[in-house]
Amino acid sequence: MKYLHFLLLFLLSPSVFAQSPSAIPMLPPENVGMDSARLNVIDDIVREGLEQDKMPGCVVLIGRREGIVLRRAYGFRQLQPEKVAMTVDTVFDLASLTKPIATATSVMVLIQQGKLDANASVATYLPEFAQNGKEAITIRHLLTHTGGLIADNAMSDYADGADAAYSKIYSLKPTAAPGESFTYSDVGFIVLGQVVKAVSGKDVHEFSQEHVFSPLHMTETGYLPCDELKARAAVTEQRDGHWMQGEVHDPRAFALNGIAGHAGLFSTADDLARYATMMLGGGRLHDVQILDEPTYKLMTTAVEIPRGRRALGWDARTGYSSNRSDLMSP
Question: Which of 32, 163, 189, 271 has its CA 20 to 30 A from that of 251?
Answer without folding.
Answer: 271
